[in-house]
Amino acid sequence: MPGAKFRLPLEGKEAPQGSCPESPGGERVGAGSAPRARKAPGTVRLSGGCGAGSQMSSSRQESVTRRGGAFPEVTGRQAPFPSTRSCRLGRAKKVPPVPTRFPARHLSLGEPIFSSLDSGASPSRPSECSQTPAVPASPGAPPLRPPARLPHTLRQVPQVRPRSLAGCRRVRALGAPPAAPAHSRLTAKIHFFICLCSQLLRKYLHVYFDFELAFSSEFVNCSQRLALLGCMLAVVGADRLYLAQGVPQVEYLSIEQTTELLLCLSPTEVANLKEGINFVRNKSTGKDYILYKNKSHLRACKNMCKHQGGLFIKDIEDLDGRSVKCTKHNWKLDVSSMKYINPPGSFCQDELVVEKSEENELLLLELNPPNPWDSEPRSPEDLAFGEVQITYLTHACMDLKLGDKRMVFDPWLTGPAFARGWWLLHEPPSDWLERLCQADLIYISHMHSDHLSYPTLKKLAGRRPDIPIYVGKTERPVFWNLNQSGIQLTNINVVPFGIWQQVDKNLRFMILMDGVHPEMDTCIIVEYKGHKILNTVDCTRPNGGRLPVKVDLMMSDFAGGASGFPMTFSGGKFTEEWKAQFIKTERKKLLNYKARLVKDLQPRIYCPFAGYFVEAHPSDKYIKETNIKNDPDELNNLIKKNSDVLTWTPRPGATLDLGRMLKDPTDSKGIIEPPEGTKIYKDSWDFGPYLKILNAAVGDEIFRHSSWIKEYFTWAGFKDYNLVVRMIETDEDFSPFPGGYDYLVDFLDLSFPKERPSREHPYEEIRSRVDVIRHVVKNGLLWDELYIGFQTRLQRDPDIYHHLFWNHFQIKLPLTPPDWTSFLMYHG
Question: How far is Cα 709 from Cα 401, in angstroms, rounded to an integer?
C-alpha cells in the first residue's frame, strides 16, 4: 500500500525523516586525493533497517538499481509528471488514464519490512528524505498518491547536475553472486534460492542486487537471509500482482552513465609532458596510467594489460616510441592507436577520457559504463519499406518516422537565432507546423537558440502545449529561461545521461553529454528495432570521444562559423588577411576532423547538417561576406576518399527511407527529393517583429538610471579576476550611440572606475549594439546573444582569451533575471 512502512530485518536504526536538500555538483578529485563516490540517482537502497539517510559502511548497503524513464505521453495517456526535472516512473499497458499528475520521485525501500523479525528497531523518526506528499486530483477531491508496484515509500533523491565529465556521479560496480558461505546447509539452500530470485529479477524486472552485501560476513543469521529472500520474492510477486490489478507497469532502464576522476595533473605537470609515451601515477591511490602525447593530441589508458593485469614498461625494441611491453607475458600495446600489436589483432585497450579543466589542469576520466548503449543490446530486425523515414526540415531539424511514432530533433523553423544575428538559410516545408504538432516527442539538444527556438516553440505551444519534449540533465537547464519567455509548455522532461529511454517495445533513445561542453551540449542515439541513428549535433567531443560504431545513420554539424571569433575582433594581429587565413585553416581542420570521425565510426549512411544559417540582416553584411562556411559536398567527397560510407546531403522536405537504403543503396526510391519547383533557399526574412522586441529595450525606464550598471554586474556575480573591460553602447555601425553608456568595469574588486587603474592588468574593449545589449541586460540573458550573434566588436590587450570571464557570461549567469522591479521602486 502506498505510504505503508516496511523494513528489511537488518541491524541499525531508521533514518530521521526531514527535508532532503539538493546536492551540489560532483567534486573533482586531484592527483593528491583519493576519488570519492556518489550514489547514482537511479538506485534504490535496500538497507538493513535503515532509511536512506542512515550511516552505514558500503559493505552494509545493498543497491537495487531500477531502470526508469518510460513515456506515458507516447501511449496516449496524460503525462503524470509535470516537473521539468522528472524521471518517469512508468508507462501504461492497457490501463485507463491516470486521473491526476504527480511529481517525479524515485523508489526507495527504506521503511520497516517484516518488522516481526526485528524487535529491536527504534521508533520511527523523520527521515532525511521526506515522503512524497499527496496530490489532489482536483479542488475538493481527496488526496491521491502515485500508484505503487510494490510496498514502498516514495522518496525524492537529490538532483545532482554534473558540472563536467569529471563532476558526474559514480556508482559501485555490481558483482556476480559469490560462492555460498559454509554456515549451514539451510544457509546454502537459502543462498541457492536468493540466486534464483535474483535471476528472475534480472531477467524480467531488470532489478540488479549487489551480492557483495547480500553475502557479506554480516549476514550470518539465517533469518536475515530468509528475510532478504522474502523481500526479493515480494518484489516479483508485487510486480505481477499490481500488473494483474491494472496498475501501470514500470519499465526499468540501466544505470545512469557516470564518470570517475582517476588523475589530475597540474598545469606545470602538463607542461612537463614529453612527446610520445609518459608514465604517470596517482600518488594518493597508487594507480598507474599511460599518457601518449602527439603535439597537442593526447591519449590515455590505465597501465594495466588486458590479458592478466600486468604492468606495462617502455618497449626498448620500439624505435618509434609508441609501444609498451607487459612485464608478465610480453604483450605489446601501441599506445598511439590503443591496439595490441603482440599478439596482433587480439584486443584494444580501453581508452580514458582526457579533459582540461578551467584552471588548465589535465583530467583523466573513466566513463562507467563506457559504452552505455551496449546495455541490453538488440539484434537488428528487418525493416519494411517506409517503416523508418527521416525527413530534413531545415538547419538541425529532422522529422523521424519510426514505426507508428514520430520524433523531431531541434525545431528551429521560424524567426532568428542569437538575437538578430542568425537567420534560416533554407526555406522549411510549408507544412512544418503540422509536422511539429503531429510529433509524439521532441528532442532538443541544448539551449542555443538555433536548437531551442522560442519563436518556433511559441507557435507550437499555441496549438499543442502538452507535447512531450526531452532534454538532457545538463548543469545549466536547457529550458532555464522558459518562464521568462512567457511560452506555455507543460510537458518538458529532463532525463539522465547514458540511460535508454523506452518509448515503446521497438523504440528507445539515449542522451549523451559532450566531453568539451558538458554543462550545456548533448547528443542522442535513437534505436528502432535494433537499428541505431546517431545525432552528434554540435558536440565538440560527444561522450568524451566514445561513440557507437557502424550505426545505420549518423548526422553531425559540419559548417563552422558559429562564433564571433575572429570576424568581430580588431587591432593587433587581427588584420583582414590574418582573419581570412585563420578562417580558411579552421574550416579545413573541421572538415578533416569530421571525415576522420566518420571513417572511425563507419556508419552505413552519413548526413551533414546543422550548419545552414545566414547572416541575413543588412547590418551584418560584413560578417556574411567574411564568415565563410564549409560546403557539405566537400566533406562528402573527403569521406568517400577514405571510406565506403554513403553520404546524404538533403534539401528541405527530402526523405530518406532507411529500410530501402540498407537493403539496396542504389534503390531510386531510397531517397525521395522534394517536388519539382520547391523553394530551397530563403530570399526574404521578416525582420520587423523581432527587431521591434529588441528596440523596446532601448527606451526602458531601467536605463534612465546610471546605477543599473552596478546593479547588473553585481547580479552577474563575476569578480575577483584581474580584468578591466570597457563597455560601449553603439549604433548599427558600431559607432558610439548618442546618449549611450560608455563605462569601465574592474572585475578584480567589481568597481566602476572613471579611468583604467594604474596596476598592471589585461584590458578588453567591447562595443555592443545598443538594442541587443539592453535587451540582454533587461532580461538577464546569456552573452551568446551578443558574441555568437555577431552583435559586438572586440579589442583586447594583451591578446589573451579570458576563459573564466566569457564562460561565466555565456553559461554561468544566474537562472533568474535581475530584480528590476525592486530597482525601479528604490530609484522611483
Answer: 50
What CA–CA distance (Å, rounded) separates 391 from 632? Answer: 17
What span, in angstroms and rounded, lies between the C-alpha atoms of 514 and 522? Answer: 5
**Whose CA is closest to 227, among 116, 382, 129?**
116
Q: Is the dihedral of CA 411, 417, 419, 425 positive or negative?
A: negative
Q: Which residues of 277-288 are buried (b: 16+ CB within 10 A; e: fewer)?
A: bbebebeeeebe
Of 149-163, 518-532, 688-702, 814-828, the range with the lowest mean pLDDT is 149-163
Chain centroid offset of residue 589 CA: 25
Q: Does the pLDDT of residue 85 top 80, yes or no? A: no
Beta carbons of 762 and 536 less than 8 angstroms apart:
no
The conformational region for residue 83 under phi > 0 = left, psi -120 to 50 = alpha, else beta, is beta
Q: What is the SS3 assignment for 743-801?
A: EEEECCCCECCCCCCCCCCCEEEEEEEHHHHHHHHHHCCCCHHHHCCCCEEEEEECCCC
Q: What is the separation of C-alpha 596 from the centre of its chain, rounded to a whole number of angstroms?
A: 24
User: Cell triple for residue 730?
Assistant: 553603439
Q: Side by side, which strands form the sheet with 287-294?
A: 258-265, 362-368, 351-356, 297-302, 287-294, 276-282
How far apart are the two ends of the chain, measured CA to CA in Å? 58
Task: Find the DSSP H helices in 334-487.
Answer: 432-437, 454-463, 482-485
What's the maximum distance between 2 C-alpha atoms anywhere in the chain?
A: 92
CA gap 144, 129 in Å, rounded: 20
**What residue type is 13 in one-letter code?**
K
Alpha-carbon distance values, 340 to 115, 307, 762 (Å): 56, 10, 49
Q: H-helix or E-strand containing 324? A: strand 323-326
Mind giving me the DSSP string for 118-177? -TTPPPP--BSSPBPPPEESSTTSPEE-PPPSSS-EEEPPPP---SSGGGS---PPPPPP
Contact 399, 437 (CB under 8 A): no
Task: Enter the C-alpha cell of residue 206.
Answer: 531488470
Residue-wise pLDDT for 163-212, tens only, equals 344 333 333 333 334 444 444 566 666 666 666 666 665 555 545 444 43
pLDDT in tens, 90-131: 333 333 443 333 333 333 323 332 333 333 333 333 333 333
**Considering only 107-111, 282-286, 650-654, which range has the smallest mean pLDDT?**
107-111
DSSP state of 205: I
Hunting for cell 507544412 — which residue is that? 431
Q: Please, are residues 469 and 444 in contact by the beta-carbon 8 Å criterion? A: yes
